[in-house]
Amino acid sequence: MLELAVVTLVVYLLVLSAAMSLSDAGDAGKRTREETISAVDALLPQTQCGDCGYPGCLPYARAIVDQDVPLNLCPPGGAVTVRKLEKLLGRTSYRYVAPVAPESAIALIDEKTCIGCVKCIHACPVDAIVGSAKQLHAIIPEYCTGCKLCLPPCPVDCITMIPQTPLIQPLIQDTHKIA
Ligand code: SF4
Ligand code: SF4
Ligand code: SF4
């Protein structure tokens, strides 16, 4: 009797899950093209880094909608963003593949040169820099996506990009892990 109840519950949950997936896909079909592009763009990190091969998040969003390009081209977004895009668009055909890390993917601040002007903190879209006015600033490597947006604002050019090390790499992958 207990086994029958468990089997019934499992079947119910499977049917419910399938119905919810179909509902999401159905919603995608009701949106206009512009609405879909806006919805896709809203899920992208907005770092405008260009690592996807497009000149910004909105152009990549347009390509996703108009050209059916893969959903896994955004390194800063990682697997979490891929999963959100799949749910939004009702696509399940693309498995997440970890983006190829750029050769110089992590920012590093030269502590001897940093003047604590705070400009890099305002430029970082993912809060990967810590520090306060007139204090040494530092990068949190596991948060840094390698977007390079902190480089241009630095008035003393004390931020450089360094290759990911084996110690840093697992931390970065963990932040992108699918729950
Ligand atoms: S890689 Fe991601 S964050 Fe960078 S421009 Fe493309 S969509 Fe935007
Ligand atoms: S620290 Fe610099 S390179 Fe790293 S995510 Fe922030 S802005 Fe981008
Ligand atoms: S922008 Fe450059 S000098 Fe200013 S706090 Fe950041 S690293 Fe230091």
Explain this structure to me?
This protein has 179 residues and is mainly alpha-helical. The protein folds into 2 domains: 2-89, 3-methyladenine DNA Glycosylase II, Chain A, domain 3, CATH 1.10.15.40; 106-172, Alpha-Beta Plaits, CATH 3.30.70. 42% of the residues lie in helices and 7% in strands. It contains 6 helices and 4 strands; from the N terminus they run ααααβαβββα. The protein has helices spanning 2-30, 33-43, 57-67, 78-89, 119-123, 168-175, and strands at 106-109, 129-130, 138-139, 159-162. It has a two-stranded antiparallel ribbon. It has a two-stranded antiparallel sheet with strand order 2-3. Strand 2 (129-130) and strand 3 form a beta hairpin. Helix 2 packs across helix 3 and helix 2 runs antiparallel to helix 4 (78-89). 23% of the residues are buried. Mean pLDDT is 76; it is low at 15-26 and 167-179.
CATH class of the largest domain: Mainly Alpha
Strand order, sheet with most strands? 1-4
> Whole-Å distance between the termini?
34 Å
- What general outline do the C-alpha atoms trace? elongated
Low-confidence parts, pLDDT < 50 over ≥5 residues? Answer: 15-26, 167-179
- The chain-level structural class is mainly alpha
Report the major sheet: 2 strands, antiparallel
The tally of beta strands, per DSSP, is 4
CATH topology of the largest domain: 3-methyladenine DNA Glycosylase II, Chain A, domain 3
Properties at a glance:
179 residues; Alpha-Beta Plaits; 4 strands; mainly alpha; 6 helices; binds iron/sulfur cluster; single chain; 2 domains; 3-methyladenine DNA Glycosylase II, Chain A, domain 3; two-stranded antiparallel ribbon; two-stranded antiparallel sheet
